[in-house]
Amino acid sequence: MSTLKNSVQLMGHLGKDPEVLNLDSGKKLVKFSLATNDNYTKKDGEKVTTTDWHQVVAWGKTAEIIEKYVTKGKEVIVRGKLSNRSYETKEGEKRYITEVNCQEIVMTSASNQ
User: Per the record, GO CC terms (predicted)?
Assistant: First the structure.
């Protein structure tokens, strides 16, 4: 059960092409946003779809695979862990962000269409 302590698995579509960063250390970093949809029916029978956006980051070999094969609109399954961090804006404001640190990515068959 220890592997489930911080485990996230999402299936969704990329909102835009991944942003690729080549760091001074020689490592590669990829960032992208992933949309997941939830469908439900209201009491009155109206069907509703809601969309949540998730920020995803990937490093190293996983980042290289994403850079090479994944583009805007592709459906993927991402497995990783949640990570919280903070940063300071140019104006000196502190901001907080939650990201999925991607450890594995699978392109679904729907991605090939």
Answer: nucleoid
Residue 2 has pLDDT above 80, yes or no: no
Q: How many folded domains does the chain comprise?
A: 1
Q: Show Cβ contacts of residue 20 under 8 Å, excluding neighbours closer than 6 positions.
A: 28, 29, 30, 63, 67
State the Cα–Cα distance between residues 63 and 23, nearest whole angstrom: 12
Whether 44 is covered by a domain: the verdict is no
CA pair distance 90, 100, nearest whole angstrom: 24
> Both ends of the chain: CA-CA distance in Å?
37
Burial class (CB in 10 A: 0-12, 13-18, 19+), 86: exposed
Q: What is the pTM of this model?
A: 0.84
At 81, list the tokens.
């862990």
